[in-house]
Description:
The structure is a homodimer.
Chain A: H1 15-35, H2 47-54, H3 65-76, H4 98-110, H5 121-137, E1 145-149, H6 152-167, H7 172-175, E2 185-191, H8 197-205, E3 213-216, H9 226-238, E4 241-249, H10 261-271, E5 274-278, E6 303-305, H11 308-311, E7 319-323, H12 326-333, H13 366-401, E8 405-407, E9 415-420, H14 423-428, H15 432-453, E10 459-463, E11 466-472, H16 480-499
Parallel strand pairs in A: 2-3, 2-4, 4-5, 5-6
Antiparallel strand pairs in A: 1-7, 6-7, 8-9, 9-11, 10-11
Helix pairs in contact in A: 1-3, 4-13, 5-13, 6-8, 6-12, 15-16
Amino acid sequence: MxxxxxxxxxxxxxxxxxxxLGYRSVDMITDYYASIRELPVFPNSTSVEVEEVxxxxxxxxxxxxxxxxxxxQSKVLPYTTHxxxxxxxxxxxxxxxxxxxxxxxxxxxxxxxxxxxxxxPAATEIERQTIAWMAELIHYPTDCGGLFTSGGTMxxxxxxxxxxxxxxxxxxxxxxxxxxxFSGRFTVYMSDHEGHxxxxxxxxLLNLGRESIRLVKSREDFTxxxxxxxxxxxxxxxxxxxxxxxxGQVGSINVGAIDPLVEIAEICRQRGIWFHADGACxxxxxxxxxKRPQYQGLELAxxxxxxxxxxxxxxxxxxxxxVRYPEKLRRAFSLTAPYLRGTLPSDYTGLWxxxxxxxxxxxxxxxxxxxxxxxxxxxxxxxxxxxxxxxxEYLDACVRRDKDFEPLHKPNLLMYCFRYAPRDLRQRWDDPxxxxxxxxxxxxxxADEIQRSGVAFIMTSRIRGRVIIRLSVCSHRTTPEDIDIVxxxxxxxxxxxxxx
Amino acid sequence: MxxxxxxxxxxxxxxxxxxxLGYRSVDMITDYYASIRELPVFPNSTSVEVEEVxxxxxxxxxxxxxxxxxxxQSKVLPYTTHxxxxxxxxxxxxxxxxxxxxxxxxxxxxxxxxxxxxxxPAATEIERQTIAWMAELIHYPTDCGGLFTSGGTMxxxxxxxxxxxxxxxxxxxxxxxxxxxFSGRFTVYMSDHEGHxxxxxxxxLLNLGRESIRLVKSREDFTxxxxxxxxxxxxxxxxxxxxxxxxGQVGSINVGAIDPLVEIAEICRQRGIWFHADGACxxxxxxxxxKRPQYQGLELAxxxxxxxxxxxxxxxxxxxxxVRYPEKLRRAFSLTAPYLRGTLPSDYTGLWxxxxxxxxxxxxxxxxxxxxxxxxxxxxxxxxxxxxxxxxEYLDACVRRDKDFEPLHKPNLLMYCFRYAPRDLRQRWDDPxxxxxxxxxxxxxxADEIQRSGVAFIMTSRIRGRVIIRLSVCSHRTTPEDIDIVxxxxxxxxxxxxxx
Lengths: 500, 500
């Protein structure tokens, strides 16, 4: 019936050819995992070199898929930073779960669109169940709403938008922030040292403006000073601002501090302000009985961010936001206004996640979390989290007994900050300011050189004006031996740099 | 040295056990692809039933991973909507590429964070090269900026924010839309019938407010009426609004219409307004020589959205946005203000995508696009796209020669709308209004019943006030035989419903 004589073809490979490619991919992944402890953590190439490796004209004709897998081995792996390495201590990045890796291929094969129930029945229900598990893990009410996101930024974005939409004194869906009849300015609060940049990013994306972020003083232990919070809130309200959200950090990015959640919740309750707990890095620590008391008050938060691709070791991308009452999430995102019905399915059976978050089309992110939680169980995760904390405690002990290091804080969760400041050097220098400037530069150079050495990947941060070395122990493969290796290398490089 | 006597363990499986699980996953995927033509497209279960299937307590202890794969077969696959089926004509969803499926597992294994160059050297450079290929495919300048996003909504969101940040008469990063000294209202323009909901969603997320979306009249052929556009722009400017972006649809969601791009570009140029081309569904049609003339002017757009997870068949998630000048994207998203330096890496070697888009942590989305483009080549893609268009043309021919169907428009790209309106019935009915109301209901019922039958997945839309049947031919597996099957089923159900 088709008048065109060309035969119809699909992109599909012959099943046996696909199976062979699949097995080879599995072999490559197996070998990769088996070698991950030995690989240089960072390739030590310049961006110009790597750009050159991948420069290629748009292929006009198709290439042999076996050749493409060859390139995985010859071109991609040699220029990879290995976030799964036991000595990757950089960003707070999960080290990946093996079953999560397989889940990604399975999810891609069925390719369900979790924007809606109809194009994704199983994927939607798996997400619903897994979200309830996430809540249960951190002792948050399991009848909450929530969904998986691309990461912590979009989780915090979702929470802030939900806060704004539910707290604002007018309907912000219609006029947004362009309501000229409204004279107030919406403001958000977080602590000055340890408030996370993704909150600033979220406020920026929502066009609240960076000025809307009000920084609250922090105490000596890096937690939020709630007296200052109350004072700033009341001052701002008095001068016409509309504080709509306070963000408590739950496992802060540098030192793993947990803000005083019960107090913040009460301050927010009294003033009708949304309390968002940003636990992207640390919320899951609530599953540890010995840490539980610090998390008191998390259950009072109106919303919580927690990233499975951080401390649940899930491969990228997987953030998560929980919101105490699902209908508040729906109020913030649903677009099922009558005039839009035409482009949406008529039959709203089941849960349509597109009404509960920023994305419309959505992949099957929940599968890798669902499978990983089933594979390891809550017990397995508790053991791994404890193990990471034991490594941090071990690191702290090493730092404190070594005259060449200066600790910055008590260890708590998975992050740890300190600096290299040999006692000899400190004694030789008269002016503390000049000494500190020198140490800033020295610690930065040490971190850069360690990265380039491939032995470990560590980063710096700036705290209270000074450069410090920051290690995040977020790999389930890390042991105290890895801590020994990185500290030895750090001292070796530090001594060399001082002699130069 | 560690005082805790418990041995350190990782989440890793024994290599041979992992290999076995991996092979089994590959076997399941191979079997799945081999059976995809025969599977019922939709499981025909209620959400209550499926929710029950996956209801389970949080696992306390870990489960055997083989058991988890058993559940993939026994629980997930039976409740899957098969977007890769040749008779899935629902949302504009790509049907997946086999090599893209393997790419997802490979990407997860190395788990690079494409937010930055240092945690992702190869992934960053592959994204950079693949973005240039995307531009080349649609004849857009290849020195543009751009990046892969979670989907079309976030691509349009990125484009709109970039437009706002670069066009606004004050620095919107500081005060956002809360600049009380600014009296103007920012407005966005798109066509009334075929402007896509993701633009409304993007404006909503950016807190521009839904009122900021100004709907421009469309012509008989569903393209934007540029006279009305000019009139609306000038009226709005006269009354103090600040039009900052006009969105041209490039392959509209219902009928595949392409707005008059050259005219829109010129209207925008004259007034200093950003021209965004939303080609989420259809931009890649520009690679077909026979369609190229319709795409004239696409190269003049300030930004373009195109979704590889739509008409390039890439598995979820993969949207894409191109922006003519990379520094404009950077101006909209970079957060490297000095006061934030502390939480960002000190050494900005290479390209850090977190400065060019909304996400901070980012997965390795580019890999599946890179591998798929290499596997099929531009030539392979042109053949597949032509084939989809031939199916739509065949569908149109069938509709036009059958007295029971009413066509709505000339076929163009991959979408097609018509309705079931048997001539007998039309002749029997006196009042056209009552007839149309009946046909609205009838067509909706037909679509719902076809979904439930599992034979095909089709949807309705509402165009010019009336319910129509919409088919999107976005599977590389679809042939004219599949069109025959869905039309026969449609008539069978229609006749049955009329007799009832």
